[in-house]
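Format notes (please read before filing issues)

Several people have asked whether sequences and structure tokens are stored in separate files. They are not. Every record keeps both together, in the order shown below: the sequence lines, then the token lines. Line labels are part of the format and must not be stripped during preprocessing.
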Amino acid sequence: MYNIAIAQSGGPTAAINASLTGVFTEAAKNPMIDEIYGVENGIEGILSDRLLNLRNILMDEHDITLLMHTPSTILGSCRFKLKDHSESEEDYRKILETFEKHNIKAFFYIGGNDSMDTVLKLSRYFAEKGIDIKVIGVPKTIDNDLPETDHTPGFGSAAKYVATSLQEIIRDSRVYSIPSVTIVEIMGRDAGWLTASSCVLRANGEPAPHLIYLPERPFSPEKYLEDVKKALDRYKAVLVAVSEGIRFPGAHYDDKKDAFGHTQNAGIGKILENYTKEHLNCKVRSIELNVMQRCSSHIASLTDLNESKRAGEAAADFCINNGQTGVMVVLKRLSNNPYRVEMLSTPVENVANKEKKFPTEWINSEGNNVSIDALNYFLPLIHGEPMLEYRNGVPVHFRLDQ
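Then the structure lines:
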């Protein structure tokens, strides 16, 4: 018998804990698995030997269901970049020491692009050293920008929140008689998937957002003004969805970078608000949805939660039952109607430090909206509503400190 460890990394989502429950429940079925450890704060927790025995935390089906519906990372997260072991083996030795101390033979890392960098480096190190410890990645990101997989766990719930919020914003902005422009800044580091997903409102006959701008196309302020003027001729209240990855020519941006070289992109909404006010005689405001996009479990997609759990289950199956290592679980779409996906795996080098952009062929010729193909892609991902547990009028969350 041996033990396994599970960690979460990167930005939180409404579904990342569902993947944790998937790994846990599948591993718990296997008589060869003894303890199932949860690692606090990702790879940092392994370096400092901060492990929790999940069998003593997830005691019954109620705990598992509650955790599945709880947003964010119950184990905590990190943005720690491992050096390549050719530069320094110090961290690798600490990780190996923790794994050997707790008889851990399989490590599951739930995260996005940067987390897969860790999966790649650890799996290569163990392979080169002839160490029998398997490492597997479970995908997660609201950005939906991981290669190889049709979509990523966490994205569908974020897309559902964005669409719902924009629908409520347009209801609010239409109450006055004066013309108005409302600019909503939506997350997406350098890819426009989440902003583009706001088009799902069309399925219910809602014309908003009237304009959608993505970083996959160059942004022209002059063209933007023309687009807004045309929209104002038709609609009293214009709603603009803009990706945080848009770059406004000549604007100043904070160039501070995290451990993986990523800059903080937020700010385009306010820039466009000021620019629009300067050139148009109408009411203008900007709204930055910010972190609410990531962890709004009250409007989560049941499809997303179920697929996230399935991805965790598949990871455990691929690793524990089939001996796979150095891979990431991927979702392959089989059909749209009925909507079906299957869980496969791909070598993690196909994913780590790479990015999948929104298809430019799904952007209209004007560069200010998306096509019906995009709508058909997004719509199945937001379907279904989870049955949440409420107490005193608000959803109950699973907490380690309660």
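For reference, the curators noted about this record: The chain is about 35% helix and 20% strand. The mean pLDDT is 95.
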